[in-house]
Design a protein that fits this description.
The strands form three sheets. Strands 3, 4, 5, 6, 7, 14 and 15 form a seven-stranded mixed sheet that branches. A six-stranded parallel sheet has the order 10-9-8-11-12-13, with helices on both faces. It has helices at residues 41-47, 121-134, 151-162, 174-183, 196-203, 221-227, 249-254, 269-282, 284-288, 305-314; strands at 2-5, 16-19, 29-38, 64-72, 84-88, 97-101, 105-107, 142-146, 166-171, 187-190, 209-214, 228-236, 258-261, 296-301, 320-324. The protein has ten helices and 15 strands. β14 (296-301), α10 (305-314) and β15 form a beta-alpha-beta unit. 29% of the residues lie in helices and 26% in strands. The protein is an alpha/beta fold. α2 crosses α3, α2 crosses α8 and α5 (196-203) runs parallel beside α6.
Amino acid sequence: MHAITIPEPGGPEALVWDEVPDPVAGEGEVLVEVVASAVNRADLLQRQGFYDPPPGSSPYPGLECSGRVAALGSGVSGWAVGDEVCALLAGGGYAEKVAVPAGQLLPLPKGLGLVQAAALPEVVCTVWSNVFMIAHLRPGETLLVHGGSSGIGTMAIQLAKAVGAKVAVTAGSKEKLDRCAELGADVLINYREQDFVAEMKKATDGAGADVILDIMGAKYLDPNVRALAVNGRLAIIGMQGGVKGELNIGALLAKRAAISATTLRARPLEEKAAIVAAVREHVWPLVDGGHVRPVVDRELPMSEAAAAHRVVEESGHIGKVLLVTP
């Protein structure tokens, strides 16, 4: 088969579409013939040499895919050859085939094309596990999403609105904020021109956000705590703004607030399977019913993964950038 390899870490040009050995479905795994994958910022870090795949997983980038079941490993039940699926991966999505633990498979949602479905697994599992399973966002509460026009952001808006929450977002342009508004965002904050802490206080009569989903890390740590409501929960899922920041413990104590920080890729298989099962139970009916949809910025041939990485690095996209196999 062909896959995107990284002979040497570097810029987008480091990605090479090359012939490699076919993967084999091991015990408890399913072999998927990949139709599409999606670009995540973790893929950019892996390309640069900063985020190696977990031991034993595929060396190729790609944390999600869609496709058709090509073979079943021993001990797998509930799936059949030819099933149309999408999957959460620890790696290997940028390839024509990938072996996936059966617990990380999801059926193709109703009314959604197979290519589009590649935009779902990573963002849905990330948002559901952090915003709902850990931070326990409830109806009537306010969620602040940083990077509202990203793949994560566009999904977080839709899921939070679906459960009856109020949603505030930050983004860096009117175009991006307008798209967030179309998806249901109630409070639109241009982080280039406005102070999101002040805007959140204004929008909530001084209360602040009950839950904050943060991709920035260190840069936003202090202002995020200031933007939290009493009993607020800050969920950190990225570090685009650095890895080391100062935390005012007094402010955190005064608000009786909580901070969580997670990654998805390196979690044990049983934890990933539990998240995927929760997504299938709670989110898939919303997708099947058309209440939640992936937002796709563009589709590019998988052999042009370098161009897709440049798009994501420049942050000019809205939603997900997909890679489609030949």
